Request: fold
Amino acid sequence: MARHALIAGVSGIIGRHLAELLAATPGWRVTGISRHKHDLPAGVSHIAVDLTDEAAARQALAGVAPSDIFITTWLRQPTEAENCRVNAGMVRNLLAAVEAEPPRHVALVTGLKHYMGPFEAYAKAKPVTPFREEQPRLAYQNFYYDQEDELFAAAKRQGFGWSVHRPHTLIGYAVGNQMNMAATLGAYAAICKETGRPFVFPGSPEQYQAVVDVTDGRIIAKHLLWAATEPGARDNAFNIVNGEVFRWNWLWPKLAAHLGVAAADYPGHAQPLEGQMAGMEPVWDRIVAKHGLQDNALNTVASWWHSDADLGRVIENFTDMTKSRDLGFTDYQNTVRSFTDAFDKLRAARVLP
Reply:
């Protein structure tokens, strides 16, 4: 049967990679939704809608009738209570807008804060690694939990199957995404090269030395497609990472070499990017002019706060993939190539020099 995918957050790392994959997969038609239209993959149609507005969502999505919905978007708020209200509301509004013609499958992307806690209570409870899907919810307010509850309630009312996907740090191509570590580190390297600053790992000693993993945008796209088409995956939550682990003290020199800078010796303590890069907008503008880059502001390309949160952790964090493996998902992604491929694509698009 022909399938029609509706991707919420199509301009983000996950949404874009998923749109590319589905548009190239026979039998799939793809519609992306976001607040603003961006440069989308060929063959992907677009609906502009703000999912925080219930009436606007109902109007924009009337008659769309997707067979599959992929929710890959969120909006950061100043408190976790607001995160819960706004982000759970978007899930509720989206699923209510299609209730006249319910989908057959809805996938929700959350993340590893399911195990580590929200920003306001991050790592207060020391989680057991590797993270496994059967670990219970933490005793903290968490917008991921509220999003899941909206999904489960709608599935019960409308009869669709669901899947929840929990990636780690996302690596891939996107511009203006608040979770894009590849673009952030690429901009950091460019500024270091321009100013003669050392390209030093900015995170904590624990993170520099600990076992960690990441999620390539391409592998989560494959995982989302797999869960939508594998009967055994119905009504399940899954972790999704590249399938290998690494340490930043091993990876950092490899990234530096690809970006054309020398990896500085680690000083033994965190030097957050928000502090290092404060006031660097004129330097970035000079880099843009010198190299003929897209005219993007520095805060559009780089998300210092999010990379600081990832790299500044003081706990170990990596993920078990046994549940997906047992059900037949065996794809794997080389992590060095996750970063270098993203750097190369950002350079080819004239986002990075």
